[in-house]
Amino acid sequence: MIKIATRLRLLALSIFLSLSSFAQTKPEMADVMRSNGKIYNVVAVCLTVLIGLFLYVFLIDRKISKIEKDS
Fold this sequence. Notes:
Blueprint: H1 2-19, H2 28-36, H3 39-70
């Protein structure tokens, strides 16, 4: 019972601390990058990295499954 109360307190604290991040103003850097058209480059690079990571994990999973099946 004590563990549950501790977890609930930790959850409440983390929610309270995360709410303060919503009170921030709009970042100026994003506006500048959007007006220059560079935000699309940033999004493209992020998507390329994420797709590469997902592809890597998928291929590793297939190799591990094949090794498990063989042994």
